[in-house]
Structures are given as structure tokens and as C-alpha cells.
Amino acid sequence: MAEIINLRQVRKTRSRAEKRAAGEENAARHGRSKALKALEETRNTREAARLDAHRRDGGAE
């Protein structure tokens, strides 16, 4: 005998899979790799530290 399935659940599962596939495709097309994100984060951190190191103390005198 055939297995009984809930059609609503099947539709939702299929829809989720399609959306996930579309999202992964967009991420591959438009996104940045993990290495590029890490490199940019490192550069931003170094630049912020450099600016803080060159900050004047005391304010307006």
C-alpha cells in the first residue's frame, strides 16, 4: 500500500528547497567568499587601530 503524505507539507518543503537554492545561487553570484570577508574585516580593524593611534589627546586648546 502507498504511503500517505500530506500535500501541504510537500508543497511547503518543495517551496523552501527552491527558495534555498535561489538564495545560494544569488550568494554565489553576488556574495563575497569567507576569505574576502575576513580580509576586509582585518583591514578595517587595522585601519581603525591606526587612526586611534594617531589621535591627538586633549582636544581644543
From TrEMBL:
Q: Which superkingdom?
A: Bacteria
Comp. bias (Basic and acidic residues): 15-28, 37-61
> What residue spans carry the region label Disordered?
1-61
Q: What is this protein called?
A: Uncharacterized protein DUF4169
